[in-house]
Amino acid sequence: MYVIGERINGMFKDVRGAIQERNAEVIRKLAKAQLEAGANALDVNVGPASAEPKETMVWLVKTIRQVTKAPLAIDTTKAEVMEAGLAEAGPGSIINSTTGQAEKLAVFMPLAQKHQASVIGLTIDEKGIPRDAAGRTEIALRIVAAAFENGIEDMQRLFLDPIILPVNVTQVTPRHVMDTLREVHLLSDPAPRTVLGLSNVSQGTALRSLINRTYLVMAIAAGLEAAIMDPLDEELMNAGITAELLLNKQVYCDDYLKAYRSSVKSG
């Protein structure tokens, strides 16, 4: 499971305060804590915390780079902010994200190739989010084609996100997303990777952690390979690690949870 830590995001009160006060220590501690908890990469999102998102993104990336060389997912819809973040973060970063809209693909796929970055493609097009798995898969195929057209032939650099929505808004979506996860693995050989912004499934619910970890296990069984999630939620991480163990993706030992986290740190 490839974990992209979600906590460096201006939507969170502590991060918003750190951005506004330019408190680098808060950002550095969050970066280190997520990696120590088992994250492979870190999402970086200015959110609503700054009126100067480009300058703030550069500050965030520079601050994180003081403590780690781990891959960073530059999380913005603005091309100029994305490019500034990628330039500062270096090769091996992740574009989070493009949609399947033609105008977005025309901007973000060349950026991915220029900066040797991976890219997350959301199954959204000009009509919005499809209602079923077939519609999501159709957009996913267009994103794969756009990646090839822009010279991105290594499908390990492409993550496809079928878009999970809050379960208290639409209860049918979790099943459609799992169906899409299964279909994505048939789009090409080798197949692109799959990813979800996991915490969206529980947005606005009373039992967020329980819903998140239950759906993470279900999605992993359906083929999910990566998630943007909170690695500081220990029960959530443990559920994901155990799901992969039971699917024979991890080697069993009595200390398999500790072994997993140790392998991520050493990697």
* Overall pLDDT confidence: 97
Radius of gyration: 18 Å
* CATH architecture group name: Alpha-Beta Barrel
What is the H level of CATH, i.e. the homologous superfamily?
Answer: Dihydropteroate synthase-like
What would the CATH topology be?
TIM Barrel
Strand order of the largest sheet: 1-2-3-4-5-6-7-8
Query: How many E-type strands?
Result: 8
Strand content: 15-25%
Q: Helicity level, as a percent range?
A: 40-55%
What is the distance, rounded to the nearest whole angstrom, between the alpha carbons of the first and last residues? Answer: 13 Å
Task: Note the total helix count.
Answer: 10
**What characteristic shape results from the CA principal axes?**
globular
Count of folded domains: 1
Short description:
The chain has 10 helices and 8 strands. The chain has an 8-stranded parallel β-barrel with strand order 1-2-3-4-5-6-7-8, surrounded by 5 helices.
Layout of strands and helices, then pairs:
Blueprint: E1 2-9, H1 13-21, H2 24-36, E2 41-45, H3 53-65, E3 72-75, H4 79-89, E4 94-99, H5 102-114, E5 118-122, H6 133-149, E6 158-161, H7 173-184, E7 193-197, H8 208-221, E8 226-229, H9 234-246, H10 256-266
Parallel strand pairs: 1-2, 1-8, 2-3, 3-4, 4-5, 5-6, 6-7, 7-8
Helix pairs in contact: 1-2, 3-4, 6-7, 8-9
Molecular structure report:
The chain has 267 residues and is α/β, with parallel strands linked by helices. The protein has one domain: Dihydropteroate synthase-like (TIM Barrel). Helix content is 47%, strand content 15%. The chain has ten helices and eight strands. Helix 8 (208-221) links the parallel strand 7 and strand 8. The longest helix has 17 residues, at 133-149. The model has no long low-confidence stretch (mean pLDDT 97).
